Amino acid sequence: MRDVITWCAAALAAFVAVSAPTVTAPATPTAPGGGVGRIALSADGNQHDEDDWASSAMTLAILARAGLQDDVVNYIYDNHIWDSDPNHRKNMTESVMGAGERFGFDTSRFHDGADPAGLAAGVASLTAEINASGPGNELTIVLAGPMETTWMALHAASPQARTHVRCVSHGDGSFNQTHGKTDHDGHSYDDVIELGCQRVQIPDQNGNLGPTDLSDWDYLKELGPDMEWLYSRLEVAEKGDVSDAGMAYFVITGEERVSRSELRTFLSSPRVPAAPAAV
């Protein structure tokens, strides 16, 4: 896999020239403001983190409920790029692609990071989105897996453009924030921030949206076929844990600790229609 990373880095170096010095990122976390803007997502689920099979689908359900399908410009899933458990990868892919199709996303923007071609395409696409960032056109990256794919894209991007990217993570020194560096000689959340993006670090979401009895999600089965399918992904994951989806709710609302009851109210409200496609 190190050869894959090296190959991707070389390809991206040809794609983007990086010449300016590294810019120091702002140290103070801030919630997204002035509209949500473009959103990129990342998650693993192909190794460790069975809860991602539920959190990934819930994340897309939350964004769809707010009518933000067109704002999701990049999703690199299965982004534990060093190795995969075949069953984990299958479950994660079913959750991401199934939710993408059911909730009206453009799944051509979704990339399987466990596949070398998907990894290269996903990182190149994310690099392009970073490079498109500037005042009034910021990009928010939701980091729900290891940091490596985001680090690769940022490293290949313009240092000036990086300063207009928000990198959202939850917790402090969590497994996902450190695993790539400590266990695979990769990169951590702090390494990502050192490249110049904005640190947006909210409290650990396990206390409010972490493991719970599946009966707490029974109401999903009453909200129509798509949400009943979402409940089925919680059943596959077995934990009732959608903690990573708290970051998507934060990106929309600025709320750092959404409760399950608040999320129920949000998901039970009428869905905002997605914006019509440009003609």
Please outline the helices and strands.
Blueprint: H1 2-15, E1 38-43, H2 52-65, E2 72-77, H3 86-102, E3 110-112, H4 116-131, E4 139-144, H5 148-156, H6 159-162, E5 165-170, H7 175-184, H8 189-194, E6 198-202, H9 206-209, H10 225-237, H11 245-253, H12 260-268
> Could you state the order of secondary-structure elements as H and E?
HEHEHEHEHHEHHEHHHH
- Rounded to an integer in angstroms, the radius of gyration calculated over CA atoms is 17 Å
- Mean of residue pLDDT values: 85
Distance between the termini: 42 Å
Helical content class:
40-55%
Quote the beta fraction: 5-15%
CATH class: Alpha Beta
Task: Give an overview in words.
There is one protein chain. The chain is of the alpha/beta class. It has one domain (2-16, 34-268): Inosine-uridine Nucleoside N-ribohydrolase, Chain A, CATH 3.90.245.10. It contains 12 helices and 6 strands. A 6-stranded parallel beta sheet has the order 3-2-1-4-5-6, sandwiched between helices. Helix 2 (52-65) packs parallel to helix 3. The termini are far apart. The relative contact order is 0.18.
Give a quick rundown of the structure.
This protein is about 45% helix and about 10% strand. With about 280 residues, the chain is an alpha/beta fold. β2 (about 70-75), α3 (about 85-100) and β3 form a beta-alpha-beta unit.
